[in-house]
Design a protein that fits this description.
Layout: E1 3-4, E2 10-11, E3 60-66, E4 73-78, H1 83-93, E5 102-106, E6 127-132, H2 134-145, H3 150-163, H4 167-175, H5 178-188, H6 194-207, H7 219-230, H8 238-252, H9 254-263, H10 266-273, H11 278-294, H12 297-309, H13 312-321, H14 329-344, H15 347-350, H16 359-381, H17 386-400, H18 407-410, H19 418-430, H20 432-443, H21 453-467, H22 491-510, H23 517-533, H24 539-548, H25 551-569, H26 571-598, E7 600-604, E8 613-619, E9 625-631, E10 645-648, E11 652-657, H27 662-665, H28 674-677, E12 680-687, E13 690-697, H29 701-715, H30 722-739
Parallel strand pairs: 3-6
Antiparallel strand pairs: 1-2, 3-4, 5-6, 7-8, 8-9, 9-10, 11-12, 12-13
Helix pairs in contact: 2-3, 2-4, 3-6, 5-6, 6-8, 7-8, 7-9, 8-9, 8-11, 10-11, 11-14, 16-17, 16-19, 19-20, 19-21, 19-22, 21-22, 21-23, 22-23, 22-24, 26-29, 26-30
Keywords: Apoptosis, Phagocytosis, SH3-binding
Organism: Aotus nancymaae (Ma's night monkey)
Protein name: Engulfment and cell motility 3
């Protein structure tokens, strides 16, 4: 048996060798020394009196404990030992008496106290610190809050705030009427500066633990906090804290929420939103969404109408969404809530079916019909009887795309109910030419190929309600608002106008018939969902992107995703792709260098942004020199030997792109220069003892990718352009399919089959060295 001494060399177990190193025989079959090494010959290590120790158990962690003005301790903490015993050992090491007056605390993060409940979070390498026990700390700080000096109270609050987020400490403070003392400071309002801000922060932190309900707050206290929101305070840190506290009150207590709603005017919240302070804007938006969530549907509609009249939507779009400061996650969540609550106002119309006995709704249907067939109806309906007029109306409603001669039967479906009628009326009134063109164009087609406007509108409204989650409760964490929603009035109806024209366009691209209606709607759903996922910032951008996503493009994306999914599921295919990558990257590298050898015609950009001068650059066939020179427009590419300038590849240092290029930096950052950022690249090279640059503006994005890839290949750097990624993916897909042609319809296992054991003999092998007679 191999046994180990304390200094780590293994010793044999033969009787003649035991004890030669001055070590006694250890107990147990296999024991390690303190340094964890083994000696092959017991006793030959020459280490006198080694100590034999077992491996540390799993419930022991190695940690550091520190204390102010003391040398830190490195200890092994036994998690099975009570914390009181651990504290006793730590205090004894520092010669501290009364260990019950101390507690352990995490040294980093939120500095939480260690208790029996959270001690499992202590891991190897954790750093703890020894502090005053939470009950004594709470007693001391609450005593400081009663100090007669303002600075003494502030100092106690400074120490209280970072500890208030710890549940253990918070319970001690609350049990000693700490909330009442903080509430008194807030209500008195003697210190409207740092003291008030610290008091509000500590009060909110203590309440967030849920030990005390928000409903227990008194009305005078809430009104005093409201005053801090409505006042113009010098200390900018107080209003955000007061707004945050009122938000928690509003969300937790309906009764106090009504008080906040009546005491805090919407105009005051708008004033806070217009202050260029991100924290203040976020808290003001938080209270605004909390008030909207607590309001009834009728009150919510009045509040939102008032806010839109005050141009809140435009302000959010210009100064928050498009602010130079990146938007925080909390603000993104509140904008999502505001969007959801606004769209939620459509739920009532979405859940209400059309009433066939409503005179107003029947007139709206007639307006819809007359907007499409007004001239035709007047000429044909003149002098007709009532029955013939009803027959004519029924035929025109059929042309509009209603499934029934009585359109009320189509709109009885819930959802979308009356919301579909609202969308159709909005489209006919705000885009009359597009509406008439849609209806008349499909009326003139063959019956099987006409796109039904009314049926498509009803289904499209349902689709938009599902995509935008109209009527669904707000998520507590979601942040996926659409910037386009705040960039347009009547965004839902405007989105419908884009979608219904997209439906007609996709219908023609698919050459669909009435039997293909569901298939067309699936494609339209995918087009809208994919474009919404891009989060376009305006309706025009949304229209451009969704119209560019044609039916053919949707098919290509589907096929690409399917092939990608199939190629990534099987590990053997992944392994094959990894083996093919070096060879295919070499092929791409060769193609890039050949493209550089062909050369490209570039334009020179003058200080006035004139692009009237041309120059040609190419790579020599031996890949050692870049040759370039000026040339006239309209002439054929010059011969290689006629180019006057040369740049040896060996002198090239690095490749710069975008804003790092010197010729881009010189032009500034105006709007006219943004088009050149993505096409600019430069090569730095040694020119004597100085560094010089050869500057390029690529004629297209593709040429930019080809040249930067080629120059990176010459410099020995990786080719990381988007074009290289696409080319590599295409080549990998083609090569993988070619390699797997013989395995068509053969399932590829997740793991390779096991290799069978070798045979017992090889007598079946033929020995070729034996010549036949």
């Amino acid at each position: 048996q191999a046994l180990s001494c304390s200094l780590g060399r293994d010793c044999g177990t033969s009787g003649s060798d035991i004890g030669k190193g001055g070590a006694s025989r250890p107990q147990g079959p296999q024991t390690r020394c303190a340094l964890g090494r083994r000696c092959t010959v017991y006793g030959k290590c020459g280490h006198p009196h080694p100590s034999w120790t077992m491996a540390p158990p799993r419930n022991v962690v190695k940690i550091a404990v520190q204390m102010r003005d003391a040398i830190p301790q490195l200890i092994q903490l036994d998690q099975a030992k009570p914390l009181a015993a651990v504290l006793k050992e730590v205090c004894d090491a520092w010669s501290l008496t009364h260990s019950e007056r101390y507690a352990l605390q995490f040294a980093d993060g939120h500095r939480r106290y260690i208790t029996e409940n959270n001690r499992a979070e202590i891991k190897n390498g954790s750093i703890l610190c020894l502090r005053t026990a939470p009950d004594l700390e709470a007693e001391q700080l609450l005593g400081g809050l009663q100090s007669e000096s303002r600075e003494g109270r502030r100092e106690a609050l400074r120490c209280l705030v970072p500890l208030a987020s710890d549940m253990t400490f918070a319970r001690e403070v609350i049990s000693r009427n700490g909330l009442e003392r903080l509430g008194t400071i807030i209500e008195d309002g003697d210190d409207l500066g740092e003291g008030l801000a610290l008091s509000l922060r500590a009060f909110s932190e203590l309440m967030e633990h849920g030990v005390v309900s928000w409903e227990t707050l008194t009305i005078p206290f809430v009104r005093k906090v409201v005053c801090y929101v409505n006042m113009n305070l010098m200390d900018a840190s107080v209003p955000p804290l007061a707004l945050g506290l009122l938000e928690s009150v509003t969300l937790s207590s309906p009764a106090l929420g009504q008080l906040v709603k009546s005491e805090v005017p919407l105009d005051r919240l708008l004033v806070h939103l217009q202050v260029m302070n991100q924290q203040l804007q976020t808290k003001a938006m938080a209270l605004l969404t909390a008030l909207l969530q607590g309001a009834s549907p009728v009150e919510r509609k009045h509040m939102l109408d008032y806010l839109w009249q005050k141009n809140l939507r435009q302000f959010i779009y210009k100064n928050i969404i498009h602010s130079a400061v990146p938007m925080g996650d909390e603000m993104a969540h509140h904008l999502y809530v505001l969007q959801a609550l606004t769209l939620g106002l459509l739920e009532a119309r979405m859940r209400t079916p059309l009433d066939p006995y409503s005179q107003e709704q029947r007139e709206q249907l007639q307006v819809l019909r007359q907007a499409a067939f007004e001239a035709e109806g007047e000429s044909l309906g003149a002098g007709l009887s009532a029955d013939r007029r009803r027959s004519l109306c029924a035929r025109e409603f059929r042309k509009l795309g209603f499934s029934n001669s009585n359109p009320a039967q189509d709109l009885e479906r819930v959802p979308p109910g009356l919301l579909a009628l609202d969308n159709m009326l909005y489209f006919s009134r705000n885009s009359p030419s597009a509406y008439s063109r849609f209806v008349l164009e499909n009326s003139s087609r063959e019956d099987k190929h006409e796109c039904p406007f009314a049926r498509g509108s009803i289904q499209l409204t349902v689709l938009l309600c599902e995509l935008l989650r109209v009527g669904e409760p707000c998520s507590e964490t979601a942040q996926d608002f659409s910037p386009m929603f705040f960039g347009q009035d009547q965004s839902f109806h405007e989105l419908f106008c884009v979608g219904i024209q997209l439906l007609n366009k996709t219908w023609k691209e698919m050459r669909a018939t009435q039997e293909d209606f569901d298939k067309v709607m699936q494609v339209v759903r995918e087009q809208l969902a994919r474009t919404l996922a891009l989060k376009p910032t305006s309706l025009e951008l949304f229209r451009t992107k969704v119209n560019a996503l044609t039916y053919g493009e949707v098919l290509r994306l589907r096929q690409t995703e399917r092939l990608h999914q199939e190629g990534t599921l099987a590990p053997p295919i992944l392994e094959l792709r990894e083996k093919l990558k070096p060879e295919l990257m070499g092929l791409i590298r060769q193609q890039r260098l050949l493209r550089l050898c062909e050369g490209t015609l570039f334009r020179k950009i003058s200080s006035r942004r004139r692009q009237d001068k041309l120059w040609f650059c190419c790579l020599s066939p031996n890949h050692k020199v870049l040759q370039y020179g000026d040339m006239e427009e309209g002439t054929s590419p010059p011969a290689l030997e006629s180019l006057p300038e040369q740049l040896p590849v060996a002198d090239m240092r690095a490749l710069l792109t975008g804003k790092d290029c010197p010729h881009v930096r010189e032009k500034g950052s105006g709007k006219q220069n943004k088009d050149f950022y993505e096409l600019a690249f430069s090569v730095s090279y040694d020119h004597g003892e100085e560094e010089a640059y050869l500057n390029f503006i690529a004629p297209s994005k593709r040429e930019f990718y080809l040249w930067t890839d080629g120059l990176n290949a010459l410099l020995g750097s990786p080719m990381g352009s988007e074009q290289t990624r696409l080319d590599l993916e295409q080549l990998l897909s083609m090569e993988t399919k070619l390699r797997l042609l013989e395995l068509e319809n053969v399932p590829i296992p997740e793991r390779p089959p096991p290799v069978p054991p070798p045979p017992t003999n090889f007598n079946f092998c033929y020995d070729c060295s034996i010549a036949e007679p």
